[in-house]
Amino acid sequence: MSILLVSCSTTESVDNSQQDESEVVGDSSTNQNTDSSRGNYVSYQNYEQEVEKYKDSRVVMFFNAAWCSTCKKARDNFESSLDQIPSDLTIVVVDFDNSDDLRKKYGITVQHTLVQIDANGESLKKWSGSTTIDQIVKALV
């Protein structure tokens, strides 16, 4: 099972076309879990490179934008609570502004949207508003 997370919209408009997703997620080497007792918080690029590694995990894609205040709150909460991610959960951080194909595939229209996906990448559930690990876990199917 997998989940995809997407972010909410704001009236503020900022050009972040030059921003690398690693700036949003941080140094991916510090966010990838090496402790098997907790889940994963990874960039979409890292997920895509090692998708087999996460096949037995529930996956949630988190569509977010650097300029979105709700997304920032969620990212800050997730990153400060990495040890609370259940061992069978992977949160995949997706750059809303630079992921047109993924947004189209999952019908994402606003940032701060989450999508739980299965092992084949098919959507199981889509929602928005979760800003804590606990809220994500409660929303899983």
Which helices and strands appear, and what pairs or packs with what?
Layout: E1 3-7, H1 21-25, H2 28-31, E2 40-43, H3 44-49, E3 58-64, H4 69-80, E4 89-95, H5 100-106, E5 112-117, E6 123-128, H6 133-139
Parallel strand pairs: 2-4, 3-4
Antiparallel strand pairs: 1-5, 3-5, 5-6
Polypeptide structure, described:
Strands 1, 2, 3, 4, 5 and 6 form a six-stranded mixed beta sheet that branches. The N and C termini lie close together (8 Å). The protein is globular and about 35 Å long. It is 29% helix and 25% strand. The protein has one domain: Glutaredoxin. The chain is built from six helices and six strands. The chain is α/β, with parallel strands linked by helices.
Number of strands: 6
User: Largest sheet, described in full?
Assistant: 6 strands, mixed
- CATH-wise, what's the superfamily? Glutaredoxin
Number of helices: 6
**Class based on secondary structure composition and strand pairing:** alpha/beta
Strand content: 15-25%
Question: Are there runs of 5+ residues with pLDDT below 50, and where?
Answer: 1-31
Distance between the termini: 8 Å
CATH architecture: 3-Layer(aba) Sandwich
Helix percent band: 25-40%
Keywords for this structure?
single chain; 141 residues; alpha/beta; Glutaredoxin; 6-stranded mixed beta sheet; 6 helices; globular; disordered N terminus
